[in-house]
Amino acid sequence: MRIHAVSPFESFSDPGREYRASSPGVPLRCCLRKSLADEPVWLFRYSSPFGKGPYAEVGPVFTHVECAGGALLDRLPVELLNNPRIVRSYNAAGQICDGVVVEPGSFDRVIEGLFNDPGVEGVQVRSVSHGCFFFGVTRV
Fold first, then answer.
1. What is the pLDDT of residue 70?
2. Degrees (nearest 5) of the Cα angle 122, 81, 62?
3. Which residue in 102, 74, 66, 61 sits closest to 1, CA to CA?
């Protein structure tokens, strides 16, 4: 699988973006880890490329202002998967195929299972409590 993080450059498409010093533990969508105290971050509106048309969702995400990278794009980011998450699969038209609340320790199995459907183009991992986008997953 291939993991899709959010580039800090995406923040420039939101004129309402906010510059902040992060609180500890904020999920950063650029390097797919939790923030340390007082790291410079952008908070901005983001729409994942997987949902389209009426399935496109916009929500708040945090990225570093300047990210040094570090996201492993070939395996799931364990640090952001220590709580239940919503996992949704989408077809090439951007329509939802399936959605599951996944508990820690089950993500690889559930995502692989969703990709067993040949019509699934991509998967979103989202927050259960706030619904915010965390990262996307596609086949390699």
1. 67
2. 80
3. 74
